[in-house]
Structures are given as structure tokens and as C-alpha cells.
Amino acid sequence: MKMKVLLVDDEPVIVQGLAVLVDWEAEGYEIVRMCANGRDALMYLETHPVDLIIADIKMPVMSGLELLKTIREQKISDAYFIILSGYNDFHYAQSAIRYSCMDYILKPVQKSWLLECLRNAASDRARSNRNAEDARKMWQAYLTQSLVALIRGKYTENQAQFVQENMELSGGLRYVHICMGNIAMLEEMTDQEVADLRERLAENCERFLRGDMKEYCIRDIADCEEENEVGFLCCDSMFLDRKETLEEFMEEMLGEISNNMEMPVFLLVGKRVEAISRISTSYASACTLRHFVRFGTLQKIYYYEEEIQIPESGAFFLCKDHLDRLLQAIEQNDRSAIYKSVDEFYDEMRKTVFSEKMISMNTNYLLFQLLHLATRQDETVRQDEIMFYMNEHISETELSKGNRAYLRKFACEYAEYLVQLRQNVSCGVLAKVEKEICEHYAENLTLRELGQKYYVNSSYLGQIFRKQYGQSFKGYLSEYRICKAAELLLKTDKKISQVAEEVGYLDTDYFVSKFIERKGCTPSKYRKNRG
Question: For residue 458, how many other CB atoms are within 10 A of its CB?
Fold first, then answer.
């Protein structure tokens, strides 16, 4: 952006001469106004900001020194100021310097002198901008660090005070998880592709906030945050200022942040708290919602107060004993005990008049405990991977209808899944998967098909693959293909499109972009430099 210049001199020939003396545009400047005296310049400055003022020291109505003194004392402008004078008197220079005058140039103005002043001002402005940007980044980093500490519940009083002073936090607060919902699609993506999607999700959130409250969108909560989520602090004032309800605000937000996303997005809205010092409670409740998310059709928005509530009657009826016996039978993979526990559970349910909420509460308890059963078998398996497995293998509709045959079938299948987790299958299966990549890398290999081929759940296979190789299956396959392409480029004279097709890329442009991503140059340049 060009620096704006105000020229002030009572002699028209002087200001016109200054206007043509140098190439202002080439130096990064734009003359926005020419005034004949200090009073006119002052009136202009009251409504128009400028970056540089060049003024004659002696003018009628108001001199250059008076103009300088006025704008500094009244804090009208902090623009760079250059005094022009025909008087070679150090007294004038001293007066000008006292009010932060940048330079003092004698008439007639020499081009070299003026250029030196302009370049000094531009250099100083660039340095100031860099310093301001560095300060802004440090401020943002400390704010983010303090917010994360508050969310995790491990903060200092200074951090709490800093957040309170630098954010508008009137009214109640809620922590909201903004989540991408297609785990299967995410698993097929590279780490960079997932990071790009998450970045786009954050940008959509910031755009919804109209850019003036970006700090309310939290991109990274270190070990607290899932890689497919973005955090958001929702204050009551956000929707009250719009004269909306919380539900209307969340619906509007979800609509805008879902824009340009290749997969469904849903919100987990945590418990309302009164102060930022309690935001960790809201965060924990939003995390709890992950386990109470319906395992059937994905909802758009989940509210903690709605999902985790006691019926109006106050009766809290949970068949905990029966469910715990069923969980034990599943963990032991005891089919007869599973059948017996399922029958006892449904018999108990029939004795009581259950509302939809009560049925949901018992179902959620069972699924929540099954989730923890799986993590106890293999601590490396991620909860969202287990939830994906459940989502594929269970129908909440069938459970809520009291279909005991369905629950028996699912419980037995889940028992086998736990057995699989307990076994150390990674070495043998991963060796087979690696062989598949070596022999069939040009084909359309997917984790789902490989999991079916080797009788391993694809979600679990993706998890152990990432642990073993430090990247996703798709990322590993892409890297292997590019390495094979590099060999073909050096050992053959085949066209780029032929090489792309031979390693599994039907789209040459996509192949070139992936090659640049991995090798840092185009295939043609790689062949030329290495050949």
C-alpha cells in the first residue's frame, strides 16, 4: 500500500516542483493533497489520515512549525514530518526536532536530498510495520496459549486476567467442538489433506465471525483437540446482539462453516458456564458429548443440556447391573452369557414404562462403556475410530425398538472385535499390506478392501498403520508411487503422462502436483537435473 503524502507551501511553484521532482509512485508514495497554509492542512488532517507531511517552515495563517506543534500536541497525526526552509538557522531545526520532525531540508530542494528522506521514511515505516506485526503475533500467541490453559483447566491468574482484558466475554460462555463427520473419508486422506480441510473449517468459522473476533475460533488445542476438529468459544452476547436464540445462531453458523466442505460438519455445544475461568467445565462437557452422539443418523448440532438431562419426573432408571453383566460377557467373548444378559436386559426394560429419553440413556451408557472396553484392549486405538466402527455396525433404531436379536448379533460381533484388538496383529497384517503396496501400487488400493481381504477392521488397520509408519495409508501409498515415478523418469524416456499412468495417476496434473509436493520440483525438472 502506497504511503499518502500531504504537501504544504504557500508558493504554488514550490509544491508543483516537488510533485514532479521525483517519481513518487516508484518510491511507493501517493500525493493526496496540496495545501497553501498550515490551517488548511490542519483541517484536512482532522478527517484524512496521511503518512508523510512536507511543509514549508514559514507560511501565512499558520506556519509549518505551528502545524507540526499542533498535530503533535493534539495527537491529530503521527505522520512523518519534513520541514522545508530557506533559512539556514539551527534554531528552527531544534524547534522542529522537539516535535518529532523527521528531517529538515533547505530550499531549493535537491532531488537527492528528497529521495534520501523518502527512502528513510519508507524504511522506517516498513520496520515499524514489522515490529507491529511481530508484536501482534506475540499478543495472539500469548492469548491462544492462555486460552488453551484455561480450556485445559491448568492456568495462572495472569493468563486468566489477560484473556479477560483482551476478549469481550460478557454473559455466559460455551465451548463448541466443530467436527468433520466422515471418519472413513478422513482416514483415506493424507495428513496434509486433513490439515488443509481443518484449516478451511477454521477459515469458514472466522469468516462467519466477520473477522473481528478471530480469537474466538481456536485452531489448535495441542493434545486436547482432535485433528478433525476446530474449537469455538460462544458468548451469549454473540447471538443476543443479533436478536437470535442460541439455536438460531448455531444453525446459521453451521450453514456458513459447512460451505465448501467435502464432508458433513456437526457441532457439539458444551455446557453453559458463567465465567472464562470455568470454560474447562464446558470443554469437558463438549468432549463428553462425543460419547453420547447418536450412533445412527448423524445430527447437525448436539447440545449438552439436551443430550444429558434427567426426565421431568426425576426418575433416573438405568439398568446398570444388567448392562454391566452384558459388558462383562462381551469382554470375555462368552456367547451364551451374552444371550442371557441381553434377555435379562430386555426383560427388565419391559417391566418399566420407558420414555424415549430413558431408552436413549440406557443405549448411550452401553455404547459409552463399549467404547472404553475397546480402548482398554489396545491403548493405541483412537476413540473416534471405535465410534466409526460402531456407526457402521449398529442401528440405534433397532435397539430402541427392543430388538433383542439385533443386540445379540451386535454384541457377539463386538466381542470378536475386542479379541482382534487384543491380538498383536500389526506385524503380520502390516507386512502383508506393505507387500500389496509393492506389488499393486498402481491399482486403486483402499484400506477397506485390504481390511476385508485380511479380516481386519479397516479403522483399526488404519490406526496401526499410522502408528507403524508415522503417516496414513493413503500418504504412504502416494509417497511410494512418487518414488516409483522418479525411478521411471531417470531410467526411461517415457512421457510424463505415461509415467503418471504407470504409477496409478490417471490425472497428469494431479500427478505433477503430488510430485512437486514430494520432490520439490516438477517431473521434467527432476529428470533434467538428475539425468
Answer: 22
